[in-house]
Amino acid sequence: MTGRFAGHAANSLDPWLQLDPNNFAADDNFHPNAAGYRAYASALLGAVSSVQPAAP
Question: How far apart are CA 17 and CA 2, in angstroms?
């Protein structure tokens, strides 16, 4: 995930992490925003779809 988030840090031009500079104690600071969650979902779906089910 580190590679996917490169260039999208909090307070970057295209952030995928939330940061409220007026409230550093905000509960959602440093949590993904919608774009960040899409990046996580894409990575997880890619990993899951490449896994073959175990034989019974």
Answer: 12
Contact 2, 11 (CB under 8 A): no
Cα end-to-end distance, the chain, whole Å: 32
Report pTM: 0.72
At 25, list the tokens: 């104690």
Structural tokens at position 43: 């990575």
Tokens of 29: 């600071």
Could you tell me the pLDDT band of residue 2, with boundaries at 50, 70 and 90? confident
* Structure tokens belonging to residue 6: 């490169």
**The Cα angle at residue 12 between residues 6 and 14, in degrees rounded to 5:** 75
Other CB atoms within a 10 A radius of the CB of residue 36 amount to 19
